[in-house]
Design a protein that fits this description.
Shape: flat
Number of domains: 1
Number of helices: 1
Largest sheet: none
Distance between the termini: 22 Å
Strand content: under 5%
Structural class: mainly alpha
Oligomer: single chain
Helix content: 10-25%
Low-confidence stretches: none
Mean pLDDT: 91
Radius of gyration: 17 Å
Length: about 70
Amino acid sequence: MATAPRSPAIIRGVDQALEDVRRGRTGEVPVHLRDAHYPGAKTLGHGQGYLYPHDFEHGVVTQQYLPT
């Protein structure tokens, strides 16, 4: 997030993210967020443990969404 009208923080952050992708540093998608709509996905554990936020009061759940 930029902290001033001409702050380069956003540009630096995007550049760092792009460099991570170029170097293969993307992390693993949490298993509960992986696609579970194809045959065999459930046997791999995909989608298991996912908490649908809209099923909870205030739409908030404590769950890992970012790659690890």
